Amino acid sequence: MRRLSVLAGAFIVLVAAPARAQEMHAQHQNAGMAAVKPLYENVKGWVLRSAEAMPAEHLGFRPVESVRTWAQLLGHVANANFMFCATAKGERSPATQNYEQVSSREELIRGLRAAFDYCDGAYAMEEAKAMEQVTLFGQTGSKLWVLMFNVAHDMEHYGNLVTYMRMKGITPPSSQR
């Protein structure tokens, strides 16, 4: 009886081991996209919530004359998201306008949402596709590199948004509990 139990246990391990190995291989194969997507989701949420938190009367606010206004900064983020994600997808940007020139709060938020919605597809690509090479700003790198660049760019400008919000007495989304 004991021998039968040992054989049954060994059989289960032998049957399960290839499935587990295949699962681990799949996780490893998607490690890059799995690492960058949560960062993208975080900054996407913070930027959108920031845009919604700032009252419309502050669209023209800028801390000093030499920097973008609140509206221009949000428009720049929307434009850049379309550009980065179009590059990663190997497509022409579907942006319908220069969002840095938009003066309506609702239109800015719509543009940001459209840009992030477009980017969602890029951040859902398979790892093998993400390793394909593209050119951006005269440099060659993987599509994953472009998506990481996009996250870094969004984070950089989220930092600007945080400063603008603090100057207006608004707690930024990443600091809210």
Please sum up the structure shown.
By secondary structure, this protein is mainly alpha-helical.
Description:
This protein has six helices and two strands; from the N terminus they run αααααββα. The chain has a single domain, classed as dinb family like domain (Four Helix Bundle (Hemerythrin (Met), subunit A)). By secondary structure, it is mainly alpha-helical. It has helices spanning 2-29, 31-53, 70-89, 105-122, 127-130, 143-167, and strands spanning 133-136, 139-142. The chain has a two-stranded antiparallel ribbon. It is globular and about 75 Å long. 67% of the residues lie in helices and 5% in strands. α2 packs antiparallel against α4 (105-122), α2 packs parallel to α6 and α3 (70-89) packs parallel to α4 (105-122).
Topology:
Elements: H1 2-29, H2 31-53, H3 70-89, H4 105-122, H5 127-130, E1 133-136, E2 139-142, H6 143-167
Antiparallel strand pairs: 1-2
Helix pairs in contact: 2-4, 2-6, 3-4, 3-6
Backbone CA Rg: 22 Å
CATH architecture: Up-down Bundle
Task: Give the helix/strand class.
Answer: mainly alpha
**Overall pLDDT, averaged?**
89
Order of strands in the sheet with most strands: 1-2
User: How far is the first residue's CA from the last residue's CA?
Assistant: 58 Å
Kindly estimate the percentage of residues that lie in beta strands according to DSSP.
Answer: under 5%
Weakly predicted, low-confidence segments: 7-11
**Can you tell me the CATH topology?**
Four Helix Bundle (Hemerythrin (Met), subunit A)
Determine the oligomeric state from the structure. single chain
Main sheet makeup: 2 strands, antiparallel
Number of helices: 6
Any idea how many domains?
1
